[in-house]
Amino acid sequence: MSRLPLRTRFGSWLLYAFAVLAALLATQWVAHLQVRSYLRDEAARAWFLARSGSTPFQWQFRQRDDLIAGTVFGASRFHVDDSGIHVDGDHTPVEIGLRLSQPLDLRQFDQLTIRTTPDKAARQIIIRETLDAPQVSAMLDVPPTAVGPIDLSALAWRDEDGRPASVPRRADMVRLRLDRSATAMLDIHSVRFAPSAGATRLPAVTEVPHVTSVESALLLRDALRRREPSALVVYAGDIPTESTHAPSPAGAGWRWLLTGLAATGMVLLRLRPPHSPSWRAGLEATALLAGPLAVILGGHLGDNLGAWTTVAIALTVAFALTLRWPAWREWISPSMAAWRGPALAMLVALVVGAWFLAQAPDAHWPTPTQFARYTAWAFVQQFLLCGLVATRLEQAGLSSRATALAVATLFALMHTPNAALMLATFVGGLIWSTAWLRDRNLAGIGLSHAVAATILFATAPTALLRSAEVSARFLL
């Protein structure tokens, strides 16, 4: 009589194990698909521009995202519209940092055109060949741009001490300094680095097998670009051809329309919630997840938070603030049993970290301030995923196992396309969400998250864990 329940339990656990494995493989497939798509589109765009004699290095300044930190350094007031950047206020010099999606090959794109009003404002270009290299600079005291572009190879380059320097071969950082001594008003319309007439050459493309991990593919691309700034890496079969066209960027109009619909849905959900508690919980969980998943999976989380990204995140935060939060008893549990799950995650991280150190004893531990900041961020993540989302998925009718698996999968997807980090967050998310559903101890899982992640970030080799970045930031 007792053998049937045992078989039933064994079959249930076996089925759950298959579901966990399938979800884990699916998250890794998503990461691989996104990186492959990014590399393919990057190569297609570079190939198309090179064949057409155009350049990927041009800025129209119609949005703040074109600028490093989204600002004009040294300007007390400025604004951006369809005609460029408009700076006013005083006569002090200003600087703008140009966002580079890839290293700038100055041997090929050596013709600089700057359109400003007034066009005779004194200008200076400041370059770092790599981010940790010393900067070099040159004055751009040339005739107005109507006469022609500036030949960067003909400029008198100086190092930081004012001594003559070699012409830079590449740039990982570009800043432009403009003097407003003649007038307080300055309009910056566009900047363009282009090749000399007839000097265009197609970029070198390297194919990697489909079994290559996303980390290895990106590390190879970075290594090649240290020698050849325009080098491209694609997966086998994705190499661009003569018929390749530039990929079409997704329109922002649809994003704003869907965001407006989402905001309307959130308001209606708070003012006129469904009578069914399960429906209400499910819709609330969906509303909490829609914004972050759209931002991260869509590759919109870059160096600067654009207007749409900021609004999408703000909507999620605002909606979360209107919901019922976990009771105070669920923030910390005095029961030792409630700390078993969090302790397991820390133990797994310790074992993995020790193994990493045995292979290469080169850990990079954070400062106390950095650890404190990350601990706060870990608590925010666990509060949203466990305290709000997992609780509502359970209220919507999912079993504890299904809820834990769903939360782990969602947690991994919020770290796409960082495949190694997705693997770690899936395992951690499964442990933490299971512990939350059983013991309701946010303090335990928040602290466990902070400690486990710190150990992995400090000890994991770059070949395995490229960085802790997600979305577009991971691909830069």
UniProtKB/TrEMBL annotation:
Keywords: Hydrolase, Membrane, Metalloprotease, Protease, Transmembrane, Transmembrane helix
Domain CAAX prenyl protease 2/Lysostaphin resistance protein A-like stretches: 378-452
Gene Ontology MF term list: metallopeptidase activity
Domain of life assignment: Bacteria
Signal peptide as annotated in the record: none
Membrane-spanning ranges: 305-325, 337-358, 374-393, 405-432, 444-465
Protein name: CPBP family intramembrane metalloprotease
The species this protein was found in: Tahibacter amnicola
